[in-house]
């Protein structure tokens, strides 16, 4: 029953996102048919604009346009790009592996960095190491991604030549892009883990373990970290959708040909079919990742499982 509810919720969210993206794109004061015709020929007249409207379907009413688009989108047929004249599904299929590579690497970086940093900060509560990690968490969570990306590009790319500034496909540039994408989540999860560990340090079962002479590091690994795992994994899973959707800036900085930069170019050129397809795809990623994280949290946490 719960799976049916989640599936219905997924379909409802996708329907709402598709409607909003389609509606907002079509209430723009700039006529996309006219903009494209002017791009082909600056002296384009009303006849050429009308011809292009007929080809693209802009001569129909908005509900007719949406119904026609949603029927094709249900079959994963998003049409062709107004700019490149290429099939959007094919282009997304080509660009998706690069984006998934960056997102998966970023997800791994989040766990690899945030868990040790959070534990170290909790074990050294109030000391210099704790304050240093707290400062790093604050900076990583506060600095915009594009700024951190440009710093990495300038220092590691232009000065140290660790990866090519122009071109794509270099593994080091992919890793730096993933690290920049993961930075805000590393800072947030580090602070959350530290707070959780310190808040639960005074619980009765922890005091009992200390009274038995068990060391603080063993208590941290055996009891506190195990109890923190459901919360951390749930938050981690919920943010994988954010990682997939947030790759546009990092992909453009590090010249990675993923769906983010593909959608960014579409937005610049007002390529509405590509924009709509990208929004539906990212909404799908958000809902699926959130649902999977929720089920994972319920499986690991008996309290959440009973509530579900």
From TrEMBL:
Pfam families: BPD_transp_1, BPD_transp_1_N
Family membership: Belongs to the binding-protein-dependent transport system permease family.
Membrane topology field: Multi-pass membrane protein
Alphabetized SUPFAM superfamilies for the sequence: MetI-like
Highest rank taxon of the organism: Bacteria
Record keywords, A-Z: Cell membrane, Membrane, Transmembrane, Transmembrane helix, Transport
Species: Treponema maltophilum ATCC 51939
InterPro entries: BPD_transp_1_N, MetI-like, MetI-like_sf
GO cellular component, one term: plasma membrane
Transmembrane segments: 100-123, 135-156, 162-186, 240-263, 275-300
Annotated protein name in UniProt: ABC transmembrane type-1 domain-containing protein
Subcellular location: Cell membrane
Every ABC transmembrane type-1 domain range: 96-293
Residues spanning the signal sequence: none
One term of GO molecular function: dipeptide transmembrane transporter activity
């Amino acid at each position: 029953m719960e799976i049916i509810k989640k599936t219905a919720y997924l379909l409802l969210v996708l329907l709402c996102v598709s409607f909003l993206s389609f509606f907002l794109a079509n209430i723009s004061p700039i006529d996309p048919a006219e903009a494209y015709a002017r791009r082909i020929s600056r002296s384009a007249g009303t006849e050429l604009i009308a011809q292009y409207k007929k080809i693209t379907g802009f001569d129909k009413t908005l509900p007719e346009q949406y119904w026609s688009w949603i029927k094709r989108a249900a079959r994963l047929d998003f049409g062709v790009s107004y700019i490149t004249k290429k099939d959007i599904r094919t282009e997304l299929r080509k660009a998706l592996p690069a984006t998934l590579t960056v997102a998966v690497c970023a997800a791994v970086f989040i766990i690899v960095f945030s868990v040790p940093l959070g534990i170290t900060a909790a074990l050294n509560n109030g000391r210099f190491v704790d304050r240093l990690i707290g400062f790093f968490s604050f900076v990583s969570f506060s600095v915009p991604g594009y700024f951190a990306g440009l710093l990495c590009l300038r220092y590691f790319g232009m000065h140290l030549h660790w990866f090519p500034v122009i071109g794509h496909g270099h593994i080091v540039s992919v890793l730096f892009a993933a690290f920049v994408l993961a930075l805000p989540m590393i800072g947030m999860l580090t602070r959350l883990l530290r707070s959780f560990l310190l808040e639960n340090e005074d619980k009765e079962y922890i005091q009992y373990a200390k009274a038995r002479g068990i060391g603080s590091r063993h208590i941290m690994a055996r009891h506190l970290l195990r109890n923190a795992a459901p919360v951390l994994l749930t938050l981690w899973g919920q943010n994988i959708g954010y990682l997939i959707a947030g790759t546009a800036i990092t992909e453009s900085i590090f010249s990675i040909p993923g769906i983010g930069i593909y959608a960014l170019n579409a937005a610049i050129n007002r390529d509405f079919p590509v924009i709509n397809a990208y929004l539906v795809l990212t909404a799908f990623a958000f809902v699926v990742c959130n649902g999977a994280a929720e089920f994972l949290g319920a499986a690991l946490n008996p309290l959440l499982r009973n509530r579900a």
